[in-house]
Amino acid sequence: MDRYRSRDHKSKPREDIQLMCKRDAEDSWEAAEGRKHARPERDVSALSSVPRILSTRAALYERDFPVYKQPVEVGCFSLDSRRTFFNDARQLRYYVEPDRKPKLDLREGYRERYVRRDERVKENLDHLLTWILANRSKLPSRPAASSSLLELDVDIVTWRGHLTKLLTTPYETQEGWQLAVTKFGGTLYVSEVETEAARQSRESRTERHDEMMYWGYKFEQYTCADEVGACPNPGGVVNTNEAFCTVVQTRLGPHKLLFSGEVDCRDPDPLAPPAPSCYIELKTSAEIRMPKQRRNFLRYKLLKWWAQSFLPGVPRIIAGFRDSDGTVVSVETYHTSTIPQIIKSEYNSWKPTVCMNFCFDFLSFAKTAAIEDDPRVVYLFSWEPNRDVIYSVHRDSPYTFLPEWYVRQMMSLPK
Ligand code: 0WD
Ligand code: CA
């Protein structure tokens, strides 16, 4: 079945795209073309053409850990309670350690003081694009090959959350994803498209689930203050429109990345290391009582927590463990860099190198697929658990996501 795949992954060139086993390939042809017949025969010539699919099988990505440069913060921005953009850190909050034996009621305020962001509004990359336009002069540029314009010297622009989904894909068994990719000025812009399944699950969310989503934000309110030295204000309103986002630059192998992620708070010590090392990610999770709960926590939750914080170089994750009534009864610090050691002893656990190599290969795959440099063209990459990544091409479709204001302003800056 490994007809097209080299067995010695370590000797493979890094840019190589993992080809798939025959059965996976056939499955995705059916999914992609929506038909069972007239499948093209594979022959040797297929090897030299652009790959049409990418396998997500973990075993294919067990190579050496790829080069991932220490992420550097190049800027930040804030979104206020009405989702208005500010090119500054006004929404950054400061961590305040809770008591040793806390009793934080996460349910308090759910009915009276909870303002939810409207999740039907799809913002795509818009806030990040606004930030790029406002900070163009600070970003590395390269002369464009075919015009008198300056291009961003970046290969990929996206949200951190989209990269997190890529990192966890080889181990994900529940939720698929769709990523829209547009090549513009030599840069690939990657923006998520809500899947039909995700839309249905959002629209049929139960009251209990909605309340549990609130718990994470309530924990932030108990542990964050607006100013250094101030106290948290658990009597205030929880408004999920508000956000502080860091913008970082880094490199994964040859892929130069510029991405942004929401940051919960920072170390209040003014002598703490510079961003992103002073940032802290806050999480809540159910108390661990049974071995099975511990196993699920290590296998699934810590994978997501690690991927999300490793990407932007956030070194600490502070977790509030809650009982079934939604009361935080203990608080634990996880160091992002030591999570791989915590999970290593688990049987059949996840591997950081698999996550990073899959992301690496997906970005290479996207670069070979998205050849046409046109803001109105979208290469739509789709993945469902137990399938390969497939893609389709769309011109002037509802998938187009780069706004006209961005394209126009990027094209109006001469060299
Ligand atoms: O409109 C959209 N479809 C999206 C908007 C998709 C992805 C992100 N965003 C927005 C988010 O609202 C956020 O402001 O982009 C910003 C940054 O996102 P990210 O950091 O790349 O996203 P991710 O790493 O998935 O989430 C980070 C935090 C979450 O923390 P937890 O601890 O739960 O992982 O951002 C928050 C949340 O606190 N967050 C959101 N808040 C409101 N609405 C959402 C959301 N849809 N997604 C994440
Ligand atoms: Ca968080």
UniProtKB/TrEMBL annotation:
It catalyses: a 5'-end CoA-ribonucleoside in mRNA + H2O = 3'-dephospho-CoA + a 5'-end phospho-ribonucleoside in mRNA + H(+); a 5'-end NAD(+)-phospho-ribonucleoside in snoRNA + H2O = a 5'-end phospho-ribonucleoside in snoRNA + NAD(+) + H(+); a 5'-end FAD-phospho-ribonucleoside in mRNA + H2O = a 5'-end phospho-ribonucleoside in mRNA + FAD + H(+). Signal peptide: none annotated. Transmembrane segments: none annotated. It is found in: Nucleus. Residues 69-407 form the RAI1-like domain. Binds 2 magnesium ions. It comes from the Eukaryota. GO terms for biological process: NAD-cap decapping; nuclear-transcribed mRNA catabolic process. Its cofactor is Mg(2+). Its EC number is 3.6.1.-. Keywords: Hydrolase, Magnesium, Metal-binding, Nuclease, Nucleotide-binding, Nucleus, RNA-binding. GO terms for molecular function: metal ion binding; mRNA 5'-diphosphatase activity; nuclease activity; nucleotide binding; RNA binding. One of its GO terms (cellular component) is cytosol. Belongs to the DXO/Dom3Z family. Decapping enzyme for NAD-capped RNAs: specifically hydrolyzes the nicotinamide adenine dinucleotide (NAD) cap from a subset of RNAs by removing the entire NAD moiety from the 5'-end of an NAD-capped RNA. This is Decapping nuclease. It comes from Scleropages formosus. The gene is DXO.
